[in-house]
Amino acid sequence: MKAEDVLNALPVNYYVIDLKTKTILHTNDASITDLKEPCFRQIFNESRSCMNDNNMCFCEQALKIENPGELVIETGEAGKKRYYRANLKKINHEQVLACFTEVTREKSIQKDLKISRKRLERAESLASFGTWEIDLEKQVLLGSKGACNIYGLDAGVLPLSQVKMIPLPEYRQLLDNELDDLIQGRRQYNIRFRIKRPNDGEIRYVHSVAEYRSEKKMVFGIIKDITEKVYFKNALQESVADLQLAQDIARIGNWKYDPVTGTLTTSDPIKQIIAGYEIPSQPELKSFEKITGKEHFALFSSAIMQALYKGVPFEKQFKIKNSDNAEKWIEIICRPDEEGSQWGHVLRGTLQDITATKTAENELQHSNNLFRTLIHNLPDAIYMKDSDCRKIIANDGDAHNCGRQSPQEVIGKTDYDIYPKEIADRYFQDDRQVMEKGIPVINREEVLPGHPKRWILTTKVPLIDKKGRITGLVGIGHDITRRKQMEEELKAAKLRAEESDRLKSVFLANMSHEIRTPLNGILGFSNFICSENTDPRQFRGYYGLIEACAQQLTSVIDNIIDISLIQSNQLKLNCSSFNFIELLNELYAGYKKQKEVQLVDVDFRLTNFHECNAQGFCSDRARIGQVLKNLLDNAFKFTSQGYIEFGCLESEQGELNFYVEDTGIGIEESKLEVIFENFRQVEEGFTRQYEGAGLGLSVASGIIARLGGTISVKSKPGYGSTFYVSIPEYKGESATEVKTVKRSNNVATVKKEEKLIVSFEDDPASMEYLRSVAGLLGCRLINFDNPVKGLDYIRRNRTDLIFMDVRLPEMSGFEATQIIKNEFPNLPVIIQSAYAMKEDMEKAFMAGCDDYLAKPVPLKELRGTIKYYIQE
Ligand code: ADP
């Protein structure tokens, strides 16, 4: 074979170029043999300039270079680039051998490789992984950029011993073992461990896998930074656990129903909530009836249907019963998917056990009810106000205090809507103080606006929320009206007690005066009678004066007794039909005679008696007479000129109206009330001009009240007074007749035989009086101040008459009388006593006495009585 043939068979094109002539002397490239002025540009049939960056033709450049060696020439347009490797060799000064080999493919592979490397690097950095190799012979580790980043290394090649220090100590042995096992072919290298990066000291989680190439004695591996993944995984695990826990705590579960497959999936909590009921994975709607119960099933199924076919979400609460019959409340929330298939919407939702909430709700409701019942039934007024001083709660008591009918009328209102401004201002100030400064108002006494007057104890305390902020106030109004009234009554009673104490002193002074005055007369004239110097012809006159004094004294005592009867409500009436005109006439005649002297200056007249329709009026004649007497006594006492007039006033059937009028000193208006009270007089004290114990009018008004009537007075100081009395006819049971003994004063002569009278008397004066009178009648009198001894005497001696006092030592006169009458029924017993009331008389007759004499007993009456019984 010729050398030329060999050259032509070469896979390269060669050219022997004469640089001087710029001709190709030899070539195996047939396509360019005819080229003139050959240039590489022409050689490669390039359209673009072959000028390089130095503006030098490549060929020239190539030829200038002493030994140009190998050059890679880029030709062609973008996207169609071709690369040639040119090997140039100078043959001599003028000739050069150029061999061209196309390296476009090689170039493109190199380029792709570069791109792949770059991509790998980018991928490594993005995906946090890297590759590494261990050269077991050299004991070095070669790490890719990614691996270096993960390991925190700067250099890509490091001694293995240094790299082994990067994992945390607890992993180092493990890693050695793994590597060993890999090299020995025992198992794959696949390990997760933690490293401490040398450059920033951060702890990272990494995952490394490797394979061993025994022929190269190299280990190739990939390392991945899984820190984020671990954290993420942990966080995910935690949040899943949290969610699970939250669901467990909240007793809530998820469910999903896919209408296409007809499957229902439920999370575990749901199974626990509806414990005891198996829910099939492909349930029918009807199968829920046993859980919801019949009453709730209709509600449940309609909600489900609406959600399934119309995509309507729902949140509903149902009461269910567990298989053990325990009641539970559940809440089902359903959110249908937006898009529904022809089978319906996918339903997702939750199911929560809300029994505890419901129970709490019920308990809250219950405690609210309790609270409401409590505040509405408490006797105190209770209210709450918000921070705007608006009532948010009020009870009946508060509504009442506000002058309203019901709490609804005050709720939502401020005090300005309820009270006049000046009162509301006051309350508002209080409220501000409580709410702004937190200073409570405790038990402050207040008078409520309105009538009747009411007092309350006001308490206002701040309403404080959980965070300690004042959000309003609570007010309580405790009604103390009754207490206040009692306090006032007590005050009045105290004043009255003090007044009565004062009156008692005045009364005692008056009584002393009223009693001592007649006693003075009695004692004085008694002394006169006993005096040897007194002319016996004066005796009669003195007796008259003594008797008048005694009468006066008796009248004082009678008034006191009457007052005590009136006050103890024991004044007994003795009603019968009587002629009132007759009573008036009797009184008129009596006073006319008695006040003869005074009547020289005063005209005394009885008028209008014909106006009185009182021929047969039923009432207590004696008591009415007593009233008239008291009024007339006063009229005479306080009138020194003018007239005193009394008589009837026009009276309806069944009533008696009369009056007593005088032209005396009159009474001040302020005293008109007072004069009817016990012991009260217009004038009090030692300087008073008029006699009197202050009892006459109170006895009169007490009697009139007892008779069911009224008394009134009209008076003008200096002009006179008129007392008006009105009494209704007595309509009660018929009058009680007190047994009285009618005695005749026509006494027959006493028999010659001396009669024995035994008296039981512990008062020496009374006993002497009796003895004297008995002596006058020729009788013997033996007295016993001790009834036991007296009784003993009677049993042994024939006795004709007994005089018995009531109050005696050891045994009362009533008891002694009973004993005597039991033993000697025919022996007359006369009880005489200073207890002069009607009941005393009744008691005496009950004890069996034959007669009753009230002390003082006038001589005439005593003598008549003894004579009467002795004669018998
Ligand atoms: P006394 O025994 O003091 O008269 P009374 O109870 O009868 O007591 O009267 C009370 C007071 O009323 C008298 O003290 C007197 O001040 C006044 N009084 C009663 N009647 C008359 C009257 N006819 N004229 C003026 N004052 C009278």
Structural overview:
With 872 residues, the protein is an alpha+beta fold. It contains 25 helices and 33 strands. It has a six-stranded antiparallel β-sheet, with helices on both faces. Strands 2-1-5-4-3 form a five-stranded antiparallel β-sheet, with helices on one face. The protein has a five-stranded antiparallel β-sheet with strand order 13-12-16-15-14. Strand 12 and strand 13 (263-266) form a beta hairpin. The protein is rod-shaped, with a radius of gyration of 71 Å. Mean pLDDT is 83; it is low at 32-38, 44-51 and 734-751. The structure holds adenosine-5'-diphosphate (ADP). Residues 630, 634-635, 638, 662, 664-667, 675, 681-683, 692-698, 721 line the site of adenosine-5'-diphosphate.
